[in-house]
């Protein structure tokens, strides 16, 4: 279950420790977002959104910001990777099956 958290900022600076990825939606106003380890900052205006984290996140601005955790993001990425690998293995098996001819003869 995901829950939204709504922050109301009045020209304030807030630090968030994001242990997973978060969806951030600027509902009103304007937000300046800095994520530790990212080369570029994110500027959100009303009705714009971004996915941030994991890591330390600084948010500065005024207005209303809605946060929603993206649970299972890592699981979904791993599932995509496993699916792609399984498809590769299946195609290799199919290719091998096309090249192997087995003939069985009965001795009289």
UniProtKB/TrEMBL annotation:
InterPro entries registered for this protein in UniProt: DUF2917
Organism superkingdom: Bacteria
Report the Pfam families cross-referenced here. DUF2917
Task: Report what the protein is called.
Answer: DUF2917 domain-containing protein
| Organism, scientific name | Amantichitinum ursilacus
């Amino acid at each position: 279950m995901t829950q939204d958290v709504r922050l109301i900022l009045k020209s304030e600076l807030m630090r968030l420790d994001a242990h997973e990825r978060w969806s951030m939606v600027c509902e009103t106003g304007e937000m300046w977002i800095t994520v530790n380890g990212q080369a570029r900052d994110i500027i959100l205006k009303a009705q714009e959104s971004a996915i941030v984290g994991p890591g330390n996140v600084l948010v500065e601005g005024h207005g209303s910001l809605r946060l929603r955790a993206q649970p299972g993001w890592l699981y979904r990425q791993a599932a995509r990777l496993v699916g792609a690998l399984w498809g590769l293995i299946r195609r290799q098996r199919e290719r091998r099956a096309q090249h192997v001819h087995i003939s069985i003869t009965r001795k009289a």
